[in-house]
């Protein structure tokens, strides 16, 4: 018998199966990332409409700020010019406000009458003399009609008026007026207040109010009408006896003139 040579079962590291070698797919190197920074958020273009809206809003805001700035600047400039003109006028002409004083006050009638229906009525009549003085050298005061009110502890005693007049430079104008009230019904508090004051030795504490408007004029310059209220206090008066009038005490009488600025329906 002949001997057969058998190949070794162990492989020496070389593939001997051609079918298995052909079925294995080829391997390629991994694809590298082409981005420079892998963690960066990708860029997304902004719509054109958003840019237009943003520009329009910025433009409107800029115009509003500019208009506010120029308006404020113009107002400040006008106020500054007005202040300079007022200061120049004051230092050149030295204007002084008008002064008022009470010359005399006579009470010719004062009656408190209670009727059968328990209503108390007041009837009064008084003669008032005032003096208005203008101490300016070039300024003229033109007054409109003056309304007068006489009060005692906020209780109206009498009313009156005086026609308008012109008070020239360094001039004194004497005002004569009659104040009266005819059968005015008073409430209980007013009656109690008047009767209590009549028992005092000095009599009723009286206060006079004058309300008018005035225009200051100098050469061709003329101001607008300005409201003025004159308050005279420190006056005391007794009721008359028989037919002789009672002369009120005006020793401590003082008058003060205040400007009244009207804004809409309110006075200041």
From TrEMBL:
GO terms for biological process: defense response to other organism. Residues 14-25 have a biased composition (Low complexity). The chain crosses the membrane at residues 63-93. It comes from the Eukaryota. It is a single-pass membrane protein. GO terms for cellular component: plasma membrane. It holds the Pfam family LEA_2. The keyword Transmembrane helix applies. Residues 129-232 form the Late embryogenesis abundant protein LEA-2 subgroup domain. InterPro entries: LEA_2, NDR1-like. Residues 1-36 are annotated as: Disordered. It is found in: Membrane. Keywords: Membrane, Transmembrane, Transmembrane helix. The keyword Metal-binding does not apply. This is Late embryogenesis abundant protein LEA-2 subgroup domain-containing protein. It comes from Nicotiana attenuata (Coyote tobacco).
């Amino acid at each position: 018998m002949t001997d057969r040579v058998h190949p070794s079962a162990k492989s020496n590291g070389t593939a001997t199966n051609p079918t298995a070698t052909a079925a294995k797919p080829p391997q390629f190197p991994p694809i590298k990332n082409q981005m420079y920074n892998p963690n960066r958020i990708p860029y997304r273009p902004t719509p054109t409409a958003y840019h237009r809206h943003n520009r329009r809003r910025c433009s409107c805001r800029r115009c509003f700020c500019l208009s506010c700035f120029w308006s404020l600047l113009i107002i400040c400039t006008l106020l500054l010019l007005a202040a300079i003109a007022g200061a120049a006028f004051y230092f050149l002409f030295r204007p002084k406000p008008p002064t008022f004083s009470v010359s005399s006050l006579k009470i010719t009638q004062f009656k408190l009458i209670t009727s059968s229906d328990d209503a108390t009525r007041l009837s009064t009549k008084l003669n008032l003399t005032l003096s208005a003085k203008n101490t300016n050298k070039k300024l003229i005061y033109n007054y409109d009609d003056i309304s007068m009110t006489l009060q005692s502890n906020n209780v109206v005693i009498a009313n009156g008026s005086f026609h308008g007049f012109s008070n020239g430079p360094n001039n004194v104008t004497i005002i004569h007026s009659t104040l009266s009230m005819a059968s005015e019904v008073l409430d209980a508090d007013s009656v109690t207040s008047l009767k209590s004051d009549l028992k005092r030795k000095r009599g009723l504490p009286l206060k006079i109010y004058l309300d008018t408007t005035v225009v200051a004029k100098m050469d061709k310059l003329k101001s607008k009408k300005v409201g003025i209220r004159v308050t005279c206090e420190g006056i005391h008066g007794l009721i008359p006896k028989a037919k002789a009038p009672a002369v009120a005490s005006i020793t401590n009488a003082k008058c003060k003139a205040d400007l009244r600025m009207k804004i809409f329906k309110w006075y200041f």
